[in-house]
Amino acid sequence: MLTNIGSDRVRSVRALSRRAVREREGLFLAEGPQAVREVVRHRPEAIQDLYFDPSADTRHAELIAAAQAAGVSAREVSPEVLAAMCDTKVPQGIVAVCRPVDIDLDAVLAMRPRLLVILANVRDPGNAGTVIRSADAAGADAVLVSDSSVDIYNPKVVRSSVGSLFHLPIVTGVPVPLLLDRVRGAGVTLLAADGSGPRVLGDVDLSGPHAWVMGNEAWGLESGVPEACDGVVRVPIYGKAESLNLAMAATVCLYASAAMQRNGPTVG
Amino acid sequence: MLTNIGSDRVRSVRALSRRAVREREGLFLAEGPQAVREVVRHRPEAIQDLYFDPSADTRHAELIAAAQAAGVSAREVSPEVLAAMCDTKVPQGIVAVCRPVDIDLDAVLAMRPRLLVILANVRDPGNAGTVIRSADAAGADAVLVSDSSVDIYNPKVVRSSVGSLFHLPIVTGVPVPLLLDRVRGAGVTLLAADGSGPRVLGDVDLSGPHAWVMGNEAWGLESGVPEACDGVVRVPIYGKAESLNLAMAATVCLYASAAMQRNGPTVG
Fold first, then answer.
1. Looking at the partner chain, which of B42, B241, B264 has a beta carbon nearest the beta carbon of A164?
2. Pick the residue with more confidence: A141 or B1?
């Protein structure tokens, strides 16, 4: 059992909370049993190392066995070492050091996607993770994250995606104009979501292949994006609220798309 | 200008971050220009005192003038006093001490509501505030908060409701069984939202008066609640996500209700 919280290994895992280190090392952390379970289930080849403490040895015995069965090397560490490795205050006894899981834009477009989400300058980790979770729940084919958006391997994004990061294809690092251009070139209609959009969600035909383009949570869509899209669509506000937050708006749009693509159009 | 951060007044405002004090004093805090703007606009009679610092005197001059025009006494305080009064680290120069804005269940039922949300044991302040905001956005008639749920005057609820706390009627302090009984007795169909529900959102007739019953974020609906409702409905999960979070599920349900009540049913 590893017990030295000052070891190079512990320090190098802990350093993965910093984006520069994640990018240099090509590694990130999946913390806690839920994230670890999903990466073991869906992307075991992405796991470089798995660490667990004695509490997890009993509480998460099945998970550790499943990881080992998938060829993952799992090492027991003291609770102090585990806490020193993690960004969360309560890592719940288990953490996986993972290699990036994102894939190429070409690979996504080759799948002939019917429902996509594009994060164009989404900066808040909780919003990004929640939208990835919603996209997964609504059955979207992929999430495309611009180079100007938050790093999807930020521990808060990983946490708020609740495992969805490992469930559906995610593309990262592409500039917004190139993302829009390539997606549109693949025959996918671009719909920007914006509270000031001229079109209302319920009136838009969502039956064909399309992508929801979500802008920044504070200042919305950047200059040039609405013009590069086929339409700017607002979620209707029926009460006195000024807006929905980004994650809620994305969820409503994605579920409207899923309902129309799977069940046919709304009447009225 | 008040400058003594150790004064009784400052201490008594600061103490409103504690539920017991809020309940004893019958007061709570609306922090920051957005919350203050909404309470000034929609419920000025609820404001007991308004405090602002010299930065707000210029940045929020119109808001302060509007408050004064509505009969609110507004007092300038030093930035240190304002910070000492608040729960937020960055109160942005303005805060209002308010009296409760919730109303009686009888008054809500007398309005013959068509769309309600019932929070049955929702404990997380961010979730409660976000659901209140969604309910407002979707045009719900009221939000009914059980006595076992989080206090809606918790600073985090006020903040995450982004002003919606002052936009639509909110009932508090009623036990879940009584809430369900009274709402149902008023001819409102009770639909519990739960990921394990036998009915799927898209298949449920939402055209009549109904209430969405949201359970606890961790353990769902408490024993007896599904049985007391007319149906238990799940938001469909099309991908590999295990669930949506409470606020997202509530938002999708509420928008489905709004779409059906306002535009007619979905085909297929």
1. B241
2. A141
Contact B240/A136, CB-based, under 8 Å?
Answer: yes
How far apart (Å, rounded) are the C-alpha atoms in residues A77 and A74? 10
| pLDDT at position A93 over 70 | yes
- Hey, what are A202's tokens? 């319920």
A254 vs B237: CA distance, rounded Å:
12
CB atoms within 10 A of CB B96: 27
Residue B150 and residue B122 in contact, taking contact as beta carbons nearer than 8 Å:
yes
ipTM: 0.93
- Name which of A143, B90, B47 is nearest A152 in CA terms: A143
Query: At A243, is the secondary structure helix, strand, or coil?
Result: coil
Bridge partners for B108 per DSSP: none
> Given B243, B251, B256, which is nearest A248 (Cβ)?
B251
Q: What is the pLDDT of residue A89?
A: 74
> Average pLDDT, whole number, for chain A?
94
Q: In what order do the strands lie in the sheet with A115-119?
A: A170-174, A142-146, A115-119, A210-214, A189-193, A231-234, A199-200
* B169 Cβ contact list (under 8 Å, min separation 6): B103, B107, B108, B111, B141, B142, B143
Pull the structure tokens for residue B251: 């938002």
Q: What gap in Å lies between CA A83 and CA B59, rounded to an integer?
A: 44
- CA-nearest of B256, B20, B43, B10 to B151 is B20
Write out pLDDT tens, residues B238-256.
999 999 999 999 999 999 9
pLDDT at A268: 37
- Which pLDDT score is estimated for B88? 76
Task: Please compute the mean of the pLDDT values over residues A43-63 and round it to a whole number.
Answer: 93
Quote the CA–CA distance of B88 and B198 in Å, as a whole number.
Answer: 42
What per-residue confidence (pLDDT) applies to B268?
37
CB contact under 8 A, B239 and A138: yes
Give, rounded to a whole angstrom, the gap between the first and last alpha carbons of chain A.
Answer: 65
